[in-house]
Queue: 4 jobs
Job 1
Amino acid sequence: MWKKAKKLVRQDTEELSLEGADPELCISLFQRGLNISGLKQRLRNADQQWMESFLEHGGLSAIFDALQSLGEKGFSSLTDALRQLDCVACIKAVMNSAVGLNFIIHYPEKK
């Protein structure tokens, strides 16, 4: 059911593969609300060097900022709810890597 819903919501948005894309491009696209599911896939398949670069360039902060922004908005549409789920899936993908988990454990808390 969710796969069908996501497909319907995204049918107007062309999702490009981010395979081979550098972290800066992925972060830039993500911050513009583009290709969130592409980032999720890229994070799942990232090697250690790519993940380190993604984290050093503020990728995790961008994900948390987007999630916070979407959370403040609430569930005004199905698209917003799916984007929140995609952000959580991106965080999960980061946490599933040793580099990402280590970064999260030592991530300085914003005050």
Job 2
Amino acid sequence: MGGGATKFQSPSKARLDADKDVDTKAGTQGGQGKDIMISYSHEDMDMMRKVKESLETSGVSVWVDEIGLGAGVDFLSKIGEAIVDAKLFLSLLSSKSVKSKYCKDELALAYVSNKIIFPCAILGRDELSVEMDFGMKLTLAPMKWIMFTEDRSYNASIDELLTEIKSKLAEINADNEPLYPATAGHTIPPKRRTIKRMQSRQFSAEFTDEKSDDFWERYFKGKDKVEWTIFKDKFNDKYGPQLNKVYSSTDKDWLMGVLYKLINQDENEYIEIEDYESFCGADGEKKPFWERVHEEAVINYTMREVFSVESSVRLDAIQNLGKFNSPSVVTALLDLITDEDENVRTIAAISLAKTGSASNKVVKKLMTLLKDKDRLVRESACLALGHLQVKQAVPKLVQLWRNDTISHVREAAGVALNKIGGEEAERAMHITKVLSEEIRLLSVRSGLPS
């Protein structure tokens, strides 16, 4: 939508306020309580307004940005919040929107925040697909599109859309009802909702394995492990013909890189059957191999799109992480911790703190960032560990507080130590302050500059 990329700021001075309740800032323009948020290119304003009016006339509440490029930063930051808070997300697809950085960011955030997505196309699917980048194709490929093209009447299209929207809203509202009536003084939390996006039958038929035709059983039956190069060759044998129809060789190389990192737990030249089964067994349920590949590839792409420095929704996504935090989000952020771009590593550290997850994996990754060559990365890691109150980080934080050459990093380490608290942190800081004061007094008595 409108606006530009937000300038990157030092995390200690910007977004990581450990004591701030980030879930209370929804204003009158936020998406809270709205049924659906519409993402669109402002060049498609007329079509957007027509769809919006039809939805509202039928009783569907809509959040949409009609201010755009003339809006201030405060309003533009509401777009990310509106996506997170709305129940559903509609992406109005045109030749302009599929190339818009803002529309791609908004779609990515909708996916990451676990929204049911309604792709509504003004042009034909093939015509739009050639204009999309790899990640957008991957995200939208398995979804059912509702066509608002010239070869179909508007009434037929809007009726189909309304039927789907009202069906999904009914499911969401039913899932949000408590299992038992609330009693006086007690609030019953809603049941956890499992998202079932509208699927394209064509995509499912072309790519998804039948459960009776397991990938490992088909190619490596009876083997405990197989070389990655052989695994990769068999993957290309099975899925290559379908992938070649849609994606470039560069796109496929990126996909294989994602798969290698996710499935090769020991980071060696072999893929073990235990790693394969663990990869397919997400959420305690074994899923077809291609379905898991697609899920992880899309979450990898969308997380990078949402949390990149250039993202138009990054800061608001970080502030609202608590609303859509999930194991897959944490896993994707852990992957971003090792990114080559120091800005991405910085953002990943801040975002991990906002998830509230202090698992061993999270703590280990954040601890490694304390040694990062980039000062912003070290600073954000200090603040993240402090926010999560990681007591085992105290010795490392004390070292940085005493010895780092960058004052902002020392300050961040001090903030983290104060936040963590406890006898060990207080004793270490007290001893350091006493020694510093003694050294200063000795310098004064010796006539040396203090």
Job 3
Amino acid sequence: MSTAGVAGFIDLSECQQALELRGYLKQLGAEISEENSEQGFTYDLFKVIDASDVIWKQTAEIEAEALLNSIISLILIIPPDQLDEIVVAFVEKVVKGDKYTTLKLKMLSNLFNGLEERSQLRYNVYCSLLTVAGSSHNIGNVETSLSKIKKWIGLWNLSPEKVQNLYRLLYEALLQNDVGEVATRVMIEMLSTFTEDNASQARSEAHRCIVSCIADPSILILDNLLALKPVKFLEGELIHDLLTIFVSGKLQQYEQFYQQNTDFVNSLGLVHDANLQKMRLLTFISMAENKREIHFDAVQQEIKLSADEVEGFIIDVVRTKKVLCKMDQTQRKVIINYCVQRTFSKHNWIHLKDRLESWRNNLSRVQDSLHSVVNLGTLPISGTMPNRA
């Protein structure tokens, strides 16, 4: 059967199409009967999929695409309550295909888009897409937006275990494709799905997430990690102590920790000099949180810099975009215009609440004043106008 014959399947019934596929696969060397069974179309299609390994070995890519698209078109006409085993079987065969990576991604995408939007089988197909894209360094061809994926998770009504598995696969695929920053966000999202009851199951992931966040120079605010149940499970361990220093500690605390636990920090794959630079930036943020200005001498002493290094360090601080400030070289001080909070505690929430209430009250007073002005302008004028005749 030629590729042209495959394209002509549209004019045949589903049973005739299955028969044609059986015959063609048999010609390619597959161990399959050329005749349909008496067990019905679904069974016949399952047998076709089972014999489809030969497609990856004996056909050119264009023929393989036509054949696989024919199989997909038949899958999509099967009643939803009979789809599970068929879809899983097809996906497994495609993932195991030993060539045509781009074609594999295309076929999985075709099947994904052909399934009902709320079908849980989309989960199986998407996980396979991540597996293929990750190992072949083609993650750019797969949807990885967290907002989109969260929407799918809601539509598919997945169990917590399946959600966690999806996030794990996405995390690994992103790491394989050197998209570490996005991978870290995915890991944090995955850890947030655990409860106190099962937090211990994600112990290794929590450990890995902490190390990734500390190692990433772009991540300076880490207090959100402390609220994650798997991270809380690590309380009392050295990795949690180290995280706490990067959340709210200062340079001196890190230096003491490193001196006492040098082998441990090095075993994590962290670079001590990079940790020092990060802690210098974090220490300055702590200094600037509640101050309008900081003298160069204070920076030099707290951050442990020479006088010549202070100005270059302040430039590094500004580049983080966590602090808006400017230098007054004449008076040797840093003027702080804005600084992010390293931690957002209950006290910070209360302070924010008070400020918002104050703004609301001020706006109410302004609104009342404006009403008074408007009302005054619409008051009737008593008396008559003077006669100018």
Job 4
Amino acid sequence: MDVHIVYSTDCSGYQHWQSISAYYSIKRAGHQGPVTRVASGCKPNDQKRILSEVKKIDPTQSRFRVHFTPSFAIGGSYKYSNKPGGLHHWITNTNIKEEVIALIDPDMILLRPITPELGEGLTAVPVSNDRSSAGLVEYIDEHGTIMVLRKKKLPDLPPRVEKGVAAGQHFGIGTVWVLSGTKDAKKDFKVSNQLQRLPKVCGKESPCLNTPHDGAYTTREQAESYYSVGPVYICSTSDWKAILPRWNDFTPKVHAQYPKLLAEMYAFTMAAADRQLKFAQSSSYMVSDAKTMSPTESWLWIDEYGKSSSSETLNLQSVCGGALFNSLPKETLGRIRNYGYGKYDENIDAIQRPLPVILHYCQRYLFANHTFAKRKIDHDFFRCDGEPLEFDIKEILNNQLSTTKVEKRTAFMICHLIPLMNMALDDYKSDVCS
């Protein structure tokens, strides 16, 4: 079953290059379904320019598409509301044939395709305490390939995404709004502050309310188990059609009480609770913050690069060895090869170790005189005379003697994001410039 991947952007050059990078990583990861960029607030000349470029990238418009919408920015400055507004506009005005839609952010790069399969045909195996004390479980297929990582105490992993069953990346945000107005609420959510009146957002009879009333309501346990979710969101198309009107309606109401970055994310989880759409949460969709010790990201798998059954190494050869300015590290290529998909070097031997699905580069990564920060990338990076990002593998590996766990993770991101950006530039030139 094909999955339709979609992401929301404004019309800035900053998100334009991200949208192109995301597309080429999705294609290279082996994704088979269409990819749609929803671009909000573009002027007519910008629409014409973007559409012309998209047609050069994919003349058939069968793989890469763009959908233009008005701006849904709140107050002209909170552009994250373009996400629910733009997607609602897209799904209302588009004939979507795929049964499953995955929403990612434009600052995400795929290593593995997003699929509707979850626990189908997999065996749950607890992660031993000598690997992690965080209470994790891996799901392994019949060939011994590790497919999923998640917290052990979560509800059972359903077989697949279908109507009434959704999936997404585990984020620690579900209990924030559900505890609003209680003694356990975080600072911005105390009784005298911000989201103290959930009925103002959800309505007086909504299941998203956190106190008993005549109808269903959301408990802290339910919020932790089903609604502590963030991108990637994977739902059936019919469930998207049910949740998007609520997400779009809730976002300005949440923002009015909580005018901060995560307002639209809280609004999404509240809309999911309102529709009682339960999400199967996994850690293996993403790595992002190299400093986090939260088990909700799949850094365990990266920390174990170069680790044997009896020892662990923090040196950088395991996460960066073999990388070039336009080629991934050897061990990563072997791990990708083991999964059996992706358009990479087929001469690499398979390594039966796991990989996250997505690299989410929403942080700044600095190591060995290398920096990857999305706000530092030239907005016109993708052009026919564009220069690749600089990458010196020798300088990186020369720093390995003093490496900490965080430095190893940071080096992993540097040694993947820069080559992947440069590979995307090569692909772009092949499609657009030849």
